[in-house]
Amino acid sequence: MPANPRNGRPYRNLCAWQRALRLPCWLCGHDIRYDITGPEAGRHPDAFTLDHLLPLSRGGDLLNKANARSAHRRCNSARGNRTSVRVQGSSRRW
């Protein structure tokens, strides 16, 4: 069984690069809590997650910077693998 590519250095480097940009959530437009790290980040809805413009399950490239987006954990989860960017109950901040 192949190793999980999300555990590798290239994926961690992509996450670190995206996190360093300190962008708002691309789905709802609100600020992300970049100060939440470690095990707590895996449970906190406002924590940073790396999302993909084209979901991996639909052929998106895991390590392509052009496909990487910053998102809240809750927004990323709510979107799932849909290609739309509208998250119920939120409005984009322009």
Task: Describe it.
With 94 residues, the protein is of the alpha+beta class. The chain has two helices and two strands; from the N terminus they run αββα. The protein has a two-stranded antiparallel ribbon with strand order 1-2. It is globular.
Distance between the termini: 44 Å
Architecture, CATH level 2?
Orthogonal Bundle
As residue ranges, the low-confidence spans are none
What's the number of domains? 1
Name the overall outline. Answer: globular
SSE series = HEEH
Mean pLDDT: 87
Category by helix and strand content: alpha+beta
What is the C-level CATH assignment? Answer: Mainly Alpha
Secondary structure tally: strands:
2
**What is the third-level CATH name, the topology?**
DNA Binding (I), subunit A
Percent of residues in helices:
10-25%
Number of alpha- plus pi-helical segments: 2
Largest sheet: 2 strands, antiparallel
Quaternary: single chain
As a whole number of angstroms, the C-alpha radius of gyration is: 13 Å
Give the strand line-up of the largest sheet: 1-2
Strand content: 5-15%
Biased composition (Polar residues): 78-94
Pfam family, one: HNH
Domain HNH: 35-82
InterPro entries: HNH
